[in-house]
Amino acid sequence: MHKNTLIKLIKASAKKITCDLVIKNVRIIDVFNKTTFVDSVGVKDGFIIGIGNYEATETIDGTGKYICPGLTDAHCHIESSTVTPDEYYKVALLNGITCVIADPHEIANVLGTSGIKFMIDSCKNIPFDAYFMLPSCVPGTSFENNGASLSACDLSQFYKNDRILGLGEVMDFVSVVNCNNPMVDKLYDAIKHKKVIDGHCAGLSEDIINIYATAQILTDHECINKDEALERICRGMYVLIREGTAAKNLKDVLPAITESNSSRFCLCTDDKHIDDMFFNGSINTSIVSCINEGLKAELAISMATLNPATLYKLQNRGAIAPGYIADFLLLDDLNDFKINSVFKNGNLVVKNNKLLTNPNKSDINNTNIKNSINIPSLDANSFNINITNKSVLNVMEIIPNKLETNHLSIDIVDDFKKQIDNSIFFNQSIDCDLLKIAVIERHKNTGNIGLGVIKGLNIKFGAVATTIAHDSHNMIVAGCNDEDMIYACKELKNINGGIIIVNDGKILASLSLEIGGLMTKRNHVDVVHELSNLDKALKIIAPNINYNLFLTLSFLSLPVIPSLKITDRGIFDVCKFKFIDIAN
Predict the structure, then answer these.
(1) For a pLDDT cut of 90, what percent of the chain falls above it?
(2) How are strands ordered across the β-sheet holding 570-573?
(3) How would you classify the pairing of strands 392-398 and 449-455?
(4) 439 in the same domain as 290
(5) Domain containing 234 — which CATH number?
(6) pLDDT value, residue 361
(7) Domain hosting residue 299, numbered range
């Protein structure tokens, strides 16, 4: 802030000069006292300068309405929306989100430092605050192949940027526990720069949570129940309650929240498709869910405003109070969280669900985005799973709306066998919902293909493939027959990555994600339409689906969440922390 700006703000607060805007007789949501009271709010030069009677060049009658701080998503991956930040923010604003804490480790695992720069550059000149955590695990683990590797030295150059708030989710707990130098260097750099360190503590024991907290790792967004949340809170951590497109943990974690510990909780989405945000909301929907589950409205709102601002050391944000940035919402109803309008830096940007601002798109065309779809030639034998002399299949079972999977041991019977070239191979069983799944390394053309068997996908025809496969983002495909699986992979390469559904050798629907196989620079409205077409196609091949298959499929390759996952190197048992055979 310039000195002259400070002087103007003080004069406006002292009523020596006129405010730009006053919201009169509005119900102010007080996130400090967790209550609501009626008064007027004065705004000058993008800041709130006082609560009380002020004169302004523009006055809005707030009678019957509520004024709420702009919402913050405490942890998200913008890449998971499938659109770039300069399209993402438009849907975010419609949902009352004026700020996000984003971790660009998706695109960093594909493109390295150029991916991080791309995300930062894409946020220039937009009426939205996107802050970033530097990806701590690129690659995510040593059990897979990705497109880049980032050292502490690679990351340190970014700390001088005001948009960098800390080190992103640390998921390689083995490196933390063993004090591996590359990880310790990243942790120490963040601590040295007085930055926040995010955690990723899925399935970790209390002993390892102790180690994480000792390493100054402050948050976890992987809690799936009350007990896990309280374990983190009592060790001084923050819990970021996730409600995304695939993973929905809010109702299970909510019982952990009390008046006395609520300041240690924030709301986040982690991974959310743009169509899900467009139709079903985001953090605003989580607030409504909290209220419906019995949480006090002001307390729920504080978890999406003041709490993340405090956690991530964002000064002057997250409250309706003098000296705070004038990011706020006017609500027609508190319990339903019905948004009437959204203000960013004191300027009206959304009114009656209409975006009023449309700045020039960031110049992202000059960013060096390389072709990252480099897969081997596939043939009829590429997905063969030999089960000669094997008696038990190790099967991944999906848990709908969860990132965790079950490890099933299924007896091999004749129905799963077929004779090919005098060898015995697993044959998909649609009746038993046992299908093939494969992860194909797509960054460096290593030729790696990891194979497995999946239950719970509920696909009855064809195949689905995508280049969104956390966190290394290799190509992942699952289907009812090898022919459609192979065809899906080849066609996915032809569209430069994305998502594709095929059946009987025909493309039913696809979404091209030309930026690293993760995002597109196309308009979010067009992308929502294309995702809708994918949903319609999915109903054809999986008529009984009751969860988001695309994001669920993309998380089956993340080998840090129990129980079984699959990488380009094969089936990984997260609980035993080692690769296992498909059959034994």
Answers:
(1) 91
(2) 564-567, 570-573, 578-580
(3) parallel
(4) no
(5) 3.20.20.140
(6) 52
(7) 69-318
